[in-house]
Amino acid sequence: MRDPRKTSLNIYEDEGFVVHFAMPLSAKGQVQGILEVFRRSLFQPDDEWFTFLETLSRQAAIAIDNNNLFDNLQRSNTNIVLAYDATIQGWSQTLELRDKETEGHARRVTDRTVQLAQLVGIPATDLEHVRRCTLLYDIGKMGISDAILLKPDKLTHAEWAIMHRHPVLAYEMLSSITYLQPALDIPHYHHEKWDGTGYPDGLKGEQIPLFACIFTVVDVYDALTNDRPYRLACSPAPAIEYIRAEAGKHFDPAIVETFLNMLAREK
Fold it and tell me: Burial level of 108, CB count in 10 A (0-12/13-18/19+)?
C-alpha cells in the first residue's frame, strides 16, 4: 500500500497505470464531467468497446443532468414555499400593526393551535396548513375600514353587519391562490358555533371544519386571558370555566376536553 504521507504528481506511476481512456460526459451541450477508465495492463480495445464506452458516457451524462435538474427544482420549490410563508407572516404582522387589539395574539394562538391540533390527531403533514390557517385567521379584516375596525365606541347594527363579512372577505381574498386553499378553513369559519348560531354560514356541529373547531377554542381562551382596550384580562380559572360552559354551544365538546387537558398539563 502506498504511504499516504508521500505524494507524487504522477498518479500513473504511483498506481501503476499503463492505459488511460477518457470520455466527456455531455448532455444538452453541457459537459457534466469526464468518464475515465484506467488499466494496469496493456489493452487494445476494438470499435465495439469504444461504442459501449460512448453509450455509457451518454447515459451517465443524462443521469447527472436529470439529477441536477431535480436538485434545482427542489431548491426552487423550497424557495417558493419560504417566499409564500414570509408573505403570510408579513400579512399577519401588518394586520397586528393595524389592529392594536390583536397585537401578539396571532403568534400565541398559532403556537397553541398547532399544539392542540397534534393532540387531536391532525396528521403531521397537515400541521403546516394549520399554522398557515391560524396566521391568516383575521386577514379578512384588511377589507374592513378603519372607521369600523378601530372604532372606540360600540358598533351599530349596520357596522356589525359589515364586520361580520370579514370571514367572507378572507375567503374571497385567498380562494384563488391554489397554494393557500388547504389553509382557508380557519379564516373562513372561525366565527361559526357548534350550535349553529355563528357566522357567516350558520354551520352546525360537524359541519364546521375541524381546523376551525380547534382554532376557535384557542382563540377565545387567549382573548379572555389577555388585555383588550375595552377590558382587562381575566385569570385562567374563570376563562377555563367559560370554555367548559360553552362546550356544545360555542365549541366542539371533544375539542374542549382535549384543550382543557392540555392546559392542565401546562401548569
Answer: middle
Integer-rounded Cα Rg, in Å, for the chain is 31
Dist CA 8 CA 230 (whole Å): 81
Amino acid occupying residue 208 = I
Q: Is 17 exposed, middle or buried (0-12, 13-18, 19+ CB in 10 A)?
A: middle
Question: pTM for this structure?
Answer: 0.69
Do the Cβ atoms of 144 and 163 come closer than 8 Å? yes
What are the structural domains, with CATH classification, of the chain? 1-86 (no CATH), 99-266 (1.10.3210.10)
Mean pLDDT is lowest, of 96-105, 120-129, 248-257, for 96-105
Interval 158-210: pLDDT, tens: 999 999 999 999 999 888 888 788 889 999 999 999 999 999 999 999 999 99
Residue 111 · residue 140 · CB < 8 Å = no
Q: Which residues of 180-217 are buried (b: 16+ CB within 10 A; e: fewer)?
A: beebbbbbbbbbbbbeeebbbeebeeeebbbbbbbbbb
SS3 assignment, position 170 = helix
